[in-house]
Amino acid sequence: MKTIVKIIVPLAIIGGAFLLGKFIVGTKEERKSQKPQPVIPQVDLATVPLADHQPPVLSYGTVQSYFETTLTPQVTGQIVEVSPKFRVGEMVKKGDLLARLDDTDYQSALATQQANLELQKRTLAEEEILAKQASEDWLASGRKLSSASEFVLRKPQMATAKANISSAEASIQKATADIERTRITAPYDAVVTERTASLGNLATAQTSLGTLVATERAEVRLPLTADQFARIEIPSKSEIDLTSPNKPGVVWKATLKRTEPTVDPQNQVIYIIAEVKNPYTVGEQTLAVGTFVNASIPATTIDNAYRVPEAALVNDAYLWIVDAENKLVKADAERVYSHNAHAYVRLSSQDIKPPLKVVTRPLSNFREGTTVQAADDTAKK
């Protein structure tokens, strides 16, 4: 009996559980299937009008001297004076005395040539008297002067005396010039960049006494690509701006003057020359030779173009824009110019009307016709 109970009770429990489960399943309401909500991608947009733009052309270069002179004497002599102005960094004016050489030998040479000139003048006077006497004697003999030789009339002797006078006068001029050349002066307004002259040194024509750089103007050599060169005018009526990382906030004005007649064979750039007036103005405005500068050059207008962020132009070939129905449209675009992280482009299709809602950060999985939504629900400007 106990065995039968042990068998029946578990079976009854299992059967009851089965019937209860079937009852619960039968009374449960059937769940209705739901369609998934479509996911609309969010994109960053920029509203871009069609307009005329005038971005500058950017370049860079190093300031070069307009005139740079290494001072070497034209005569030989011991340095007996060095001007206090002849120091590195000092500004000098045209004609300022920088150094002086001993001129004793040249003063002596001048005195010698002056004495020689007087001697030659006396010789000429004597020859003139002798020539006159010779002519009178020839006529007194009853002969015509036309029959007398030039030597008898002392014409060669007079010509020699006159030539000696001209030679003595030229020697005096040279001696005077040599004395003047012992004074080393500034050939133009300049700043002293190097000085090697010292008292007591012997200066010769191969001796460098120092170096001067002109302060009236300086030049900057600026490389341009062919596209950049096509957008500027030379000579330009507009001034360009020069800035240097060494002096933030300081701007120098320069003028485009000319173009180098050759193209760099390495990178095919064209070099233009900008001129800066008075680069050595005292104070923060000083623009020393050798300074690296960035140049901003006014350029011609780019007509009827769109200015878009550089990242918006995909593969340098097309833009993703959003139409009135918030769908993506792939628009072929041509880059005209680039400046300051923006591209200036023109669209190939005339059917797309401005202003454009341009996707500023397009994704690689974009498909034309996909519905999108602005990240902030408004187009960014």
Topology:
Layout: H1 2-27, E1 42-43, E2 45-48, E3 51-53, E4 57-65, E5 68-71, E6 77-82, E7 91-92, E8 97-101, H2 104-140, H3 155-181, E9 183-185, E10 190-195, E11 202-203, E12 210-214, E13 217-224, H4 226-229, E14 239-243, E15 252-263, E16 270-277, E17 292-297, E18 302-309, E19 318-322, E20 328-339, E21 342-347, E22 356-359, E23 373-374
Helix pairs in contact: 2-3
Defining key terms:
381 residues; alpha+beta; conserved putative lor/sdh protein from methanococcus maripaludis s2 fold; Elongation Factor Tu (Ef-tu), domain 3; 6-stranded antiparallel β-barrel; 5-stranded antiparallel β-sheet; 23 strands; 33% strand
Task: Characterize the structure shown.
With about 375 residues, this protein is α+β, with helices and mostly antiparallel strands. The mean pLDDT is about 85. The chain is elongated and about 190 Å long. The protein is built from four helices and 23 strands. Helix content is about 25%, strand content about 35%. The longest helix has about 35 residues, at about 105-140. Among the domains are: about 45-55 and about 305-375, conserved putative lor/sdh protein from methanococcus maripaludis s2 fold (Beta Barrel), CATH 2.40.420; about 105-180; about 215-295, Elongation Factor Tu (Ef-tu), domain 3. The strands form six sheets. It has a six-stranded antiparallel barrel. A five-stranded antiparallel β-sheet has the order 3-18-21-20-19, with no helix packed on it. Strands 5-12-10-7 form a four-stranded antiparallel β-sheet, with no helix packed on it.
